Amino acid sequence: MMNKFISLQFKALFLVLLCVVEVIPRPVPLNGDAGNQILYETQVRVANACKPGVGSKEQIEACNNKIAPRITYKANLTCDIIDDLLSIKLGTIDDLLEPTTDFQQGITLSYIKKKVGATAVWLMPMFPNNDRWSIPDACDNLGSPYAVRDFYHLRGTLSRRCILLGQDEETPTPCYGNQEFDDLVSQANTLGLKIFLDLPFNHLGHNFMFYDTWNVTTIRDRVTVGQNLDNLWNFDATYDPALLHPVIRDDALEFGLTARDPDFKNFVRQCPGVPKSKIIKAFNMWRESFDYERSNFNCNADFLEQNLFGFYLGSDSFSPSSGPTSFFTNNWLDVKFLFNREDNVLHKFEYARVREYLFRVMNYWVSRGVQGFRLDHTTDPNSGISPNEWLYITTKVNYYAAKRGQPRPIYLAEEFHEQMSMGQVVDIETEGYVGDICGRGVTVKDTSFIERVTQNYLRFNYQTFVMTALETHDEKRLLDGTGYDIWTGSGMWAIGATIWSTPMLLMGQEFGESWGVGFKRNDFLRARFVGTQNYNPSGESLVDFYGKVTRARLNPKNKALQSQSYFHLRTQNGNAVDDRIFAKIKWWDSSVVLVFHNLWNQPSVEQTYFIPAEVGTSAGINDGQRYRFIDILLETPISECQTGADLKWSFHVKLTSATVQWLRLEAC
């Protein structure tokens, strides 16, 4: 039986739609540029935060002069350290634009590119977020950045300009960080960095503010004129010029323009006297609403869940919500979940409406220069977005990017449930290496263990890259329960940079941060500040090591590091695994690189290896040609010349404590 909330005027068309078989396009080809990236994950408000009185004299002075937002504690519970937390001065987008390359002065784009050597900055969500509802911990005063309340604006608290004006997204005259974001993208492009935005798309924070783009054709518009929604897969046939260079409808000053919209008279007829401060959001929601929602429309409501409750998943976790009190909930108390149930064919309108909105958000940010996305918690049995829906969204984003002459974005998915299916859609998946290589609870992490871990990514059959990382924002720091110190940990990370993958560093990892940063509360990177318990005198040397690894990985002479062709080397005496040393050879065209890692702080390890004849032939090593080894982390020769035949027979390796040696084979 047809759902009672679908209006009578749509019933005939809806029954026709049910008989149409949806045409599913082929999976998107892999974007090979994803394998050329080294990601750096950062949270803007934490990366350059400081605490008055902490650090060197210069750091204390800089903190005293820092322009930072004043954060009001809004949770209902008490916290005995809240005054201490509120003394922390949070970071801004502007901080990332400072010219320093010294992490003690700041985490900046220049530092990330020139010192760390990353190619892309993955920014945790910077949107207005839920900071009042269901705060999980008494000391969480910021709320989760993954409980987003508005996907078209960046928080005003991330802009020095807004801070000095005393305005943010909540003030009567809103102020946002979008202008600073444009500066960020511009500087990143100048430095050769890509900007990745982090999007949590299967849920919204409470009190979502529904802004949208001008003149877009809504799903209601399409249904009203009798369009078959399955034809939306044909992007040429359903091309919408308003999406090419989208502009947000978001400002009460635009009232005059809004009033010229053909739908506005009908809106005013239902909602006379709506104040200008509310009219933009109200009209955005009204344009998208179906008849059953318009019959209950609250003209003075500010938030999406009050008027377009069909946008959300209902309490049965299968149908759209039937009202503002019937939302699906789980233990994530600070969010509401969207209706993404493609399998509920009685509600194709609501499903298509959500899908189009999510596409429009991504399309807008690509039009502003974003070149990649990290897609949070992509699929879930109850509340996730299906691989097919992601396929639609990403291919449509690609279509409009191409229309603008932009490169295709890179898509990184946090995936737990549909790994193989999502591997057909996205370019990088986060699951696999990040947990396996840390091996919390694994007591023996020898060569055999490492070989098993690095084989794990082969389950995707090279259809998607695996993100190789030791930690992300919701992982424990690498020193907690892994047995690693900062040097053995860096070696384990470097192993990930030698496989067919996309390496990622979490902010602070490169200078030895061990503090588990809490991203729902005021916090700062303690290892940046001289004199703190977390500050490590070896931090500069560690940054230097990571920089050498990233530059070696990206050097075209060493492209074998990114190759699919490899062989795990065995000892010359006994053809056996030496469980102290991870050893392999990789090759791609004329590039040949041999990789050796002293896995632990063993004072000195040495071994004699050989290259099997068939492997040498595949790698293009000629018996009569003379070769030498180049240490590619130092770009210096470390061996005398010897023939390919000699190398196939035996060669000797000696490593000091926690040493990494990557050796490029060059003809003499």
Description of the structure:
Among the domains are: 32-206 and 431-553, TIM Barrel (Alpha-Beta Barrel), CATH 3.20.20; 557-667, Golgi alpha-mannosidase II (Immunoglobulin-like), CATH 2.60.40. The protein contains 23 helices and 22 strands. The model is unreliable at 1-26 (pLDDT under 50).
State mean pLDDT (0 to 100 scale).
Answer: 91
By CATH, the topology of one domain is: TIM Barrel
Task: Give the C-level CATH assignment of one domain.
Answer: Alpha Beta
The helix count comes to 23
* Number of separate strands: 22
In which range does the helix fraction lie? 25-40%
Strand content bin? 5-15%
Uncertain regions: pLDDT < 50 for 5+ in a row? 1-26
SSE layout:
Blueprint: H1 11-18, E1 39-42, H2 44-47, H3 57-64, H4 82-86, H5 93-96, H6 109-116, E2 120-123, H7 160-165, H8 178-191, E3 194-199, E4 203-205, E5 212-213, H9 219-224, E6 248-249, H10 255-259, H11 264-270, H12 276-288, H13 291-294, H14 304-307, E7 335-337, H15 348-367, E8 372-375, H16 387-403, E9 410-413, H17 419-422, E10 428-429, H18 433-436, H19 447-455, E11 465-468, H20 486-496, E12 501-506, H21 539-554, E13 566-568, E14 570-571, E15 581-588, E16 591-598, E17 604-610, H22 613-618, E18 626-631, E19 636-637, E20 642-643, H23 644-649, E21 651-656, E22 660-667
Parallel strand pairs: 1-2, 1-12, 2-3, 3-8, 8-9, 9-10, 10-11, 11-12
Antiparallel strand pairs: 4-7, 5-6, 13-15, 14-17, 15-16, 16-22, 17-21, 18-19, 18-20, 18-22
Helix pairs in contact: 15-16, 20-21
